[in-house]
Write a structure and sequence with these properties.
D-amino Acid Aminotransferase, Chain A, domain 1, alpha+beta, globular, 324 residues, single chain
Length: 324
């Protein structure tokens, strides 16, 4: 019997348009002989099922069901394609876990931790995971520019702590530009992280649970045409994404082992994509994404393709891994 799959997309953050694209790719790709896919738009003002004629049917939040032509539809599994809040920060995970509905992303706690860059890196440091030097600010804190520069140096990166797709990220070369970068970051989040600039090869490493085993996918090297891997570089073609990455066997082995170790330390499930920069031959972790982009051009699907895993197989596996 075919399974009913709710593909949640949209969300409450600046990433909602990217999420809609990812979710529609999942919708178009899922095997119709095995699944009945449903596009579910999650926005602050409405949760709705959108049919192929763009008609909308409200979600009953009591049990995450829909009523179509007086027929109640419930779901066997939720495919999470929401980048940012509330799909990547633990809120949807907690909701589905309370309702007892399977979902393709990591559990609630792991989503909360990995979405918070500061908390995630703080947990990993005692395990020997190398990171950039960092300085934290909360909205309302006094900004001591001298202390910041003394800690992280110049140039440095100012980032919104809980945001994705490089929203709220600036590279600062001069002290006089620091306050403006802080203001930009605070537009996205009330917590920010300021990190030292790591000058080296940047790579993205996908780690997934595939057929019951933790699998590290072929590595992608990021070569941005811009000053760093910002929104334009990620989504508007202003970068080269080279898979497999041009690494030495030693570098490849090191980053593979670190990426797998991080996945296992955090007790992850489902998709993950972690970013690293090599400094002095050692991979330094920047962050982990647990609901990465899922378009054909996105990094994780590129890596899966290089590993011989089609989009259809990638999505099918995600569903099979979470079904009881």
């Amino acid at each position: 019997m075919k399974k009913n799959i709710a593909i949640i997309m949209g969300g409450y953050s600046s990433e909602y348009e990217i999420s809609l694209t990812s979710g529609n790719v999942v919708y178009e790709t899922l095997n119709r002989t095995k699944y009945n896919p449903y596009r579910i738009h999650i926005f602050k003002d409405k949760w709705v099922y959108v049919d192929d004629n763009d008609l909308e049917f409200p979600i009953d939040k009591n049990d995450f069901s829909i009523n179509v032509d007086s027929f109640k539809i419930t779901f066997d599994c939720v495919f999470n394609a929401i980048h940012g809040s509330p799909g990547e920060d633990g809120y949807m995970q907690g909701y589905f876990e309370l309702l007892g509905i399977s979902h393709t992303s990591c559990p609630m706690y792991q989503a909360q931790v990995t979405f918070n860059k500061r908390d995630c890196l703080s947990i990993l440091k005692p395990y020997g995971i190398k990171t950039a030097e960092s300085y934290y600010l909360n909205l309302g804190d006094t900004v001591d520019e001298s202390a910041i520069i003394e800690t992280v140096g110049l140039p440095c990166f100012v980032k919104a702590n809980k945001a994705g797709s490089s929203f709220g990220v600036s590279k600062v070369h001069k002290q006089e530009d620091l306050q403006n970068a802080i203001d930009v970051a605070f537009k996205e989040d009330d917590e920010i992280i300021i990190e030292s600039f790591l000058d080296g090869t940047e790579v993205s490493v996908g780690v997934i649970t595939y057929k019951g085993e933790v699998k590290v996918l072929p590595i992608t090297e990021i070569v941005s045409e811009n000053d760093f891997f910002d929104y334009e570089a990620k989504y508007l073609g202003k970068s080269q994404e080279i898979t497999p990455a041009r690494l030495t066997p030693e570098q490849e082995d090191k980053v593979n082992r670190v990426a797998k170790k991080v996945y296992e330390i955090l007790k992850m499930k489902g998709f993950s994509r972690s970013e690293f920069i090599f400094k002095d031959g050692e991979p330094h972790m920047l962050e982990m994404n647990t609901v990465p982009g899922l378009t054909k051009e996105s990094i994780l699907p590129q890596q899966a393709a290089a590993a011989g895993i089609s989009l259809s197989d990638l999505f099918d596996n995600a569903i099979q891994e979470c079904l009881p």
